[in-house]
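Lecture 7 notes. Example A: sequence first, then its structure tokens.
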Amino acid sequence: MLKSVVRAVGAAVRMSSATTSTARALPLSCPTLCSPCSATTRPFTRSLWMLNSKGASSGYRPKLFSSKVLQPTVSCGCGGLHTEGDKAFGDFLSDELKEEKKIQKNKTLPKMSGGWELEMNGTEAKLTRSVSGEKISVSFNVNNSIPPNFEEEAEQGQQKSAEEEPEIVSTPNFVVEVTKQASKHSLVFDCHFPEDEMSHGEGEEESDIFAIREVSFQPEGDTDWKETSYTLNTDSLDWALYDHLMDFLADRGIDNTFADELMELSTAIEHQEYIKFLEDLQGFVK
């Protein structure tokens, strides 16, 4: 009788082990992360911060999941392809345009003090003025003039509210050209806005918000910088000579006040061009 009981208990243990083994093998054929027996669902890996348009500055939030399969619709006869994705893209651009026009500060371009005249050619801008027979021109392009904003919070995937978002400011490189009467060459300064304000000495009350990168004599009227002309790089330049060059520009109206106004003007131009690009993109998608 005792042997019979032992055999019965052993059989029960073996049946329990077989049931456990079968249960553990189930995830290999039907993962628990997916819906039962689904072959199309997969884990969502893209971060919400990356899917948002301009982070927290935009009220638009994309639809993360959709049960519809995006298929091309019938052509409307315009010769272009129309899809559900195009429609969603167009709706997004409409919302984005509303937001950008709402925060646009300058409907018209701000004026530069000092008698500067502005000429525009797409994204290129040129300011000119004459002082005692000298012609001074300042040229810049707003393309790639928005410095990147890399912050630890962004790297960690943290979002900021619209009030905490840093203001977007255009800081383009600009070229100053000074031409004297009866001169075959112009003195040309290649300038930029450094990330940190430059200071040339201790005890200075105000530091320069822009810096000279290179100086060269170039043939008057030439739009391209000739590499065969000697170019003075200021990285290893004596500070005294550098200060005289900065004073030379300041005497002709290229100082911190001018640089501030230039950034304001460039920011307004860049924003106008961005809005125009969105409008053109919306029309192209539709």
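Example B, a different protein, same format:
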Amino acid sequence: MDIYVGNGLVDMYCKCGSVNTALEVFFSMNRKDTVSWTSIISGLAVNGVHDNALQLFSQMLEHCKPTHGTFIGVLLACAHSGLVDKGLEYFDSMEKHHGLVPEMKQYGCVVDLLCRSGNLNRAFEFINLMPMAADVVLWRMLLSACKLHGNGVLAKIAANKLLQLDLDNGGNYVLSSSIYATAERWDDAMKIRQLMNDGAVQSPLRMEFN
């Protein structure tokens, strides 16, 4: 089988949720490159087959070098299976063992890993120690986790960061207000609503019906 056709089929079957067929195609390929391994590892991680994804990553290291994309799949598998320490080990190994300087997407995967496991303080510390400024995706991730786990202190910090970075996004205001309302901090919730009104920012619901 042509390697490019094989890679395309593995990617297609994974995106369709046909994991077994994707694995059959992958193992039937006589030659595999980094794209082949990354496609199957990421595809398994997305479809919830986390153990197999990590096993294949170990096998991959015997044949070729991983890429930034490979580590997204590996970290995603760790995040969805609750393997916090293992995920952090993989993240640290990127630069230490593979010469890959982590980018925003890999940092985001680690924040997701920590948030999913309820380690919000560690996620906040991790964001503050990043060599680049966190983007709105990371702050929104932390804010959503604060809502889920009821952490009002960090929620306020994340909400303020979001409003600074993405002032015109009505979804940020609605999410922040909802978190304060859930915590029965009605004054703060009203302040957020007032900020949205003062800035003439439409909420997602209003935009949907306009």
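Note on Example B: Confidence is low (pLDDT under 50) at residues 200-210. The chain has 13 helices and no strands.
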